[in-house]
Structure formats: C-alpha cells, structure tokens
Amino acid sequence: MRAIVLLLFIVGYTTELKAQEARDPDSLTTIRIGNTNRFSVMGVVIPATFISYGALSLLSPGLKGLNASTRHETREHIVAGAVIDNYTQYAPAAAVYGLNLFGVKGKHNLKDRTVIYITSQLILGVIVVPTKSWVGEQRPDGSNNLSFPSGHTATAFSAAHFMFREYRDSHFWLSISGYPIAAMTGIYRIFNDKHWVGDVVAGAGIGILSSEIAYWLYPVTSKWFNPKNNRHFLTIAPVYQPGRLGLNITKTF
Hints:
Radius of gyration: 19 Å
Number of helices: 10
Strand content: 5-15%
Structural class: mainly alpha
Number of strands: 4
Strand order of the largest sheet: 1-2
C-alpha cells in the first residue's frame, strides 16, 4: 500500500506548508499582488515537486519499480471497477458552492469564484490533454496510451486547492478538508488500475498549480467579465469532446 502512504504524505506536507503560510502571511516566501491575490513561492515549489516526481517516474528504474510493485500489491487485494472517483474529483468544488448556500461564505462572490474556477479548469485542460498524447504512457490495464498524467487527480486537486484558497483566511480547517478527498480520488485511480503512482502524483501537482495560476491571473481575468460598458459582454466556456478540448468564446456588443 505504498501508494496510499505516498499520497497521505502529499496531503500532510501540503497542509503543513499552507498552515505555515496562513500563520505567517508576511513571510518572505510571499509577494503581494493587488489586494486579494498573492504570488506564493510555495505555490510553485510544492506542485513543481509533485510534477517532477511524476516526470521522473517515466524514466527512473527505481520509480518505475515502485509503480509496478504498487500495482502488483493492489491487484492482489483490490478488485477494480469502483466509480466513486468519477464523482469525488468534483466534490471539493461542489462543496464551495454548497457551503455558500448554508451561509459559509468564501473569499469571492458567486461570479468571481466561478471565473476563477473556470480559469483553473481551462489551464488544467491545456496542460493535461496534450501531455497525455505527447507522453503516450500505457495505462496499467492496457486500455490506451493516455495514462500520464492522471486527469481525475488533477481535477480533484484543482478543486481542493480552489476550496483552500476560498476558505483559508476565514475557516482554515474547513479549507483543507478537500485535500483528503482529492487524495482518495488519486488512490482510487490506482485501485481501478487506470494509473500508475507517478501519474497520480503528477496530476496532483498539475491540479494545485492550475488553481494557483487562476488566482494569480484573477486581476486580469476579472476584467474580461466586468467591462466598463455594461452593454458589452464576453463569455468564455470550455468545450470538451472525446479526445478534444476547446473554448467557446462569445462577445456581445
């Protein structure tokens, strides 16, 4: 069960670093951008570490061995076929909107947080979809060559980090509750024989980084949806078809 230990380590390590940042917002690792968005060195270092691990797992004999031995252990004890990971990948993001209905407000209002979340998913898709085709790693079950990185895990950690960013200043312990759900999503991708450990770790890094970038870009992207002239509207929405990812852009004058 080395995959479980590794993913729990990821969650614990991320939580501790974020807790330190919350306790010391004026840390030297932080540079303020505008009034509500900040560039955090840790916001890059942590996901970059995960992505680097995933990339090395494609090349390193030792990490390849970890991938293979973890799959061997899970196949001995677990029957693939659970579908819970198809739903848990969205759970933290859904919780952000659900909590608002119960009066637990996050940092941004409905429109602003939606702009941020959509931006994160677009960034995630731009990274994950081409990388899957470019790397061409075969899935453990042999179903196709789109294993690296794990899209489900990337989506889950993107949602978890979105939840963290919305609630870290007002409800810290609530804000980190999405990470265990995201970790469970990644674990189930391994249990279902759809991904290697390295795929899942890389997906976690891509997800966190995508949400982090979306918050950094918010001072820019918010202007696209708040034109000075209210008669002008710009709508951007992701469009996904099997094997294809695109954008639907509508400008109203």
